[in-house]
Each structure stands twice: as structure tokens, then as C-alpha cells.
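In this section we walk through a basic example: taking a raw amino acid sequence and producing a predicted 3D structure, encoded as C-alpha cells. The instruction is simple. Fold the sequence below.
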Amino acid sequence: MELRGRVSSFMEPELIEIKQDRPGFDRFIGSWICPGDKTLVIDVGPSRSLPKLIDALMAMGVHRVDFVLLTHIHMDHAGGLAEFLDHYPMARAVCHSNAIAHLVDPSKLWLGSRKTLGDLAEAYGPIRPVERERLLPHTETRVEGIDIIETPGHAPHHLSFIVEGNLFAGEAGGIYLAGKDWEYLRPATPPVFSLKEFLASIDRLLAAEDLPICYAHFGRAGRSHPMLKRQRAQLLFWESVMREELAKGDDRLTERCMGRLLREDPELKDFGAMPAADQEREKFFTASSLKGYWGFLQENPQS
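The resulting C-alpha cell sequence is shown next.
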């Protein structure tokens, strides 16, 4: 099925926080909504918290959603898709063509999520199958006003979207968090991870216009190019640290790398300013990201 059409007259995008019933997960998972002639929602979050997203949309008076744009199908972005489409039966979900099979039959996706996330996968909730006819492959979607950019790295099926002057980068630009007096940028590189693909994806986004960048985790920055360049430099810095520490042996490798990064990575300098529960969350995801680097470096031992 090929979708062609036009989406126009958007209002400013708005980020809806999807609160999780777990310490350290406030202001971390969200869904972007672009109201207009056609209403778009970018990512829907986990299944267990999907009712909170629906309640927020209904409170905003959003009774129709035309398209769901999925940056990728990890369960914190797409786990609640089946339930979301139940509530908005007119909506269609645009996703990477290679992700469709995993949404129709999420059994492998669920097993992989449990392996990577452990009990956090259970907290996010189960993944229900999505009807094939509700899914639109990105390769067959042509809608004026929506530009789709393939951005693998964080996930092989990752997409970014440019909609009416805003870049929705998912996790292709990393994790960007900011408080009143602090700022924090971290790569999202869980297994299986390809640094080469991640860097190529950033270069692809840098080739696009310098736009406001909307992060899945969590917020918006005024210009994409400076933020993407910061993420690119950080990815390469993490590689250099990981290679140096790996050369010393693999004993306590994750602990050693994490300690060095917290001391030496300027993007992590405000780690201590975050709430304690947020710090524990970030330690968990940083360890996962370092495992992704470790796997990549084992397959690519030369710089």
C-alpha cells in the first residue's frame, strides 16, 4: 500500500510527558503532537502508560489522529501502539518497512526487550500485535509536509522526521535532558549497535536544514546542527575511552569506563545536578550503551 497526500497548516508541536510508575522516570518518556489540518503523533510510549497519553490527548481536545510517526519500535516508543490505534481507529502508523513484521508479531521484539531491559520491560508492559493494514511502510509513504530520513544506529529500523520546520530525531541525536541549572547529553547505543551507522545517520541529519530538534528523551533544542555536532563528538569520545580501557583488559570494564566518562566527558558534567533517582536510571542506560560499544569494538577491533 502506498500512501500519498498532503499535510499542512500545523500548529507548534507540543511534548506530552508520559509519566511512568517508576522512580527516576519523570520527564523522560514523551510523545510529540503536531495539531493541524492533519494531526500527527510522534511515538506513543509503553503499553502500560498508554492510558495516560490518551487522557492527555483527550484533555487537549484531540479526538482525531491521522498519522502516528514511529521513530523506532523499541517498547518505550511503540509498545502501546496497538492500544493507541484501538482508541484512534482512523489513524495509520508510519514506521520503517523492516519493522512491520515485528509489530505484527512482536514475540521476538518482546524477548529482545526482556533480555536488554530486564524487569524494566515488565514495567513498560506487554506488546500487543498490530494489524498489518494499520501500518504504512516508510518506503511507500509520500506525504507533502513530512520528510522521512533513515537514521539507523540506535536501532536498525530508526527513522527521523522533518515536519513543518521541526526535526523529530527520536534517539538519533542521543538523549538530551535539561533542568533549571543543568544540561545533559548522552548517547543511546544499546546492543546491537553500529557506530559507523550512527555517525552516518548524524551526517545525514546535518545535511538537512538547521532546525529546532525535538528529542524523544526529553525536550526540544532551538538548533539541530550544534546539538548533532555535540552528539557526534561525544560518540567518538566514548569510542576512544572504550578502546583505551578495553586495551587494559575487560575486568570491571563497564565500571571503569563509566567512571572515566563521568569525570572527563563535558556533556556529562552536570550528572551530579540531576535528582538521585534520575542518576540511577542514567547509570542503568549508560551501562547498556557501553555494552553496545563493547559489542561494536569486538567486531571492529581497528580504529
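Looking at the output, two observations stand out. The mean pLDDT is 94. The chain has ten helices and 15 strands. In the next section we compare this with other chains.
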